[in-house]
Amino acid sequence: MANSRKRLGESELIRQYFAPLCHPDMSFGLSDDAAFLRCDTDQQLVLTKDMLVADVHFFADDDPALIARKALRVNLSDLASKGAEPLGYLLGLGLPASWDEDWLKNFCEGLRLDQECFAFPLIGGDTVKSPERLTLSITAFGQVPRSKTILRMNAAVGEAVYVTGTIGDSALGLLVRREPDQYPSVAAADRAFLKDRFLLPQPRLSCRELIRKFATASMDISDGLIGDAQKMSGAARKALLLDSDSVPLSPSARAMIGSSTDLHEIALTGGDDYELLFCARPEDHEPLMAEAHSLGIPLSRIGRVAEGAGVRLLDSAGQDIALSHGSSYEHF
Fold first, then answer.
1. Are 43 and 146 in contact (CB under 8 A)?
2. 284-316 burial code (b ≥16 CB/10 A, e <16)
3. Residue 1: its pLDDT value, please?
4. Quick check: pTM over 0.90?
5. Residue 2 banded pLDDT, cuts 50, 70, 90
6. Cβ atoms within 10 Å, residue 37
């Protein structure tokens, strides 16, 4: 059966599938070993890189178009957290022995859809044989004004802490994707919503001007709200005090959490939200919320920055909530 799969050599694979995705003025149809990326004179480049591995970040039998789109979107989320305008990306693609041309065609269609959606062209990359499983590496390029370098370490005492969207949907969606029959009391529509949040994250690129205007420190939430808040805390050498009741949950997440109290902790610590976590000055709260509303961006104030270290999750009485299963997703 494996011998019947359609195969192309590397050069033909690049010519037929990846060269049409490229920006002609930056990568010259992938006819060279390097791309040339121009940047406006008053801008600085923002670079980020994420790797995705089959059965670690996605399931090997997921729709290849969704795999491709997720790979792009997790990098776009990093650019969004810095208020950056996307410019283009490099693709590293390690194909396992099981690939065929139909799979590759669908994968590239997913790339094309999101390239058009986010004005984010392919500008180069590399393809190799991966002996064990599919591996993807995206290096994303964006630009932001030189005066806007928004780093985690910038968080300052007294600032408010915000998140976009809702938290925990993807972590719960992973459970649904992994064990589809495990939660029969949760409505099918809620399970479908949560699974979609895992399979196809929504990078908050519409927030980039808001981030540039108001955020002092910013990052995206990829390894769980609590764990990523700890990263910001460590970089800034400040404490982040988070109000558990203020953390926004979708109706579907609330429905699933209602079936098991342990799931609330998973929602707070699980990965792949790809929402934005940022700080802003308290005097900017009203104009910040007004601008978010005008842009149609769900935004919640969930805490504040204080002297000290680490993250404290607080209940309605201001008492610490202990977490029993760790604070975030860890690769190692």
1. yes
2. beeebbebbeeeebebbbbbbbeeeeebbbbee
3. 37
4. no
5. very low
6. 16
